[in-house]
Amino acid sequence: MSPGLLFLAYGVIVVAAMYGFVYIPNKKKHKKMQELHDSVKAGDMVVTIGGVVGKVAKKEGEYLTLIIDEEKNVTMKIVLYAVNQKIEK
């Protein structure tokens, strides 16, 4: 086998491995997060990327209004994509 062809074969193997180890898992994670963002609705308890915990008061397109403290009427408007997880009751 010539050195040029061997180098090309190694390159193809490396690219295939990168595709398998990087792209596919990221695609699955992205799909899971998209499903989470689509399922968020008023009344859900969520945690943001920054660690803020709140209850969704309303969803307006790509924005959410979170109730942080009901007693003191503290709310926060965030971008939907900042939601990292839902807290199941």
List the helices and strands and how they pair.
Blueprint: H1 3-39, E1 45-48, E2 53-60, E3 63-69, E4 74-79, E5 83-87
Antiparallel strand pairs: 1-2, 1-5, 2-3, 3-4
How would you sum up this structure, described in words?
This protein has 89 residues and is of the alpha+beta class. The chain contains one helix and five strands; from the N terminus they run αβββββ. The chain has one helix at 3-39; strands at residues 45-48, 53-60, 63-69, 74-79, 83-87. The chain has a five-stranded antiparallel β-sheet. A hairpin with a 2-residue loop joins strand 2 (53-60) and strand 3 (63-69). The chain is rod-shaped, with a radius of gyration of 21 Å. It is a single-pass membrane protein. InterPro entries: Preprotein_translocase_YajC. The chain crosses the membrane at residues 6-24.
Number of helices: 1
Order of helices and strands: HEEEEE
Determine Rg (CA atoms, Å): 21 Å
| N- to C-terminal distance | 63 Å
What would CATH call the class? Mainly Beta
The helix/strand class is alpha+beta
Which architecture per CATH? Answer: Roll
> What count of domains describes the coordinates?
1
Count of β-strands: 5
Biggest pleated sheet? 5 strands, antiparallel
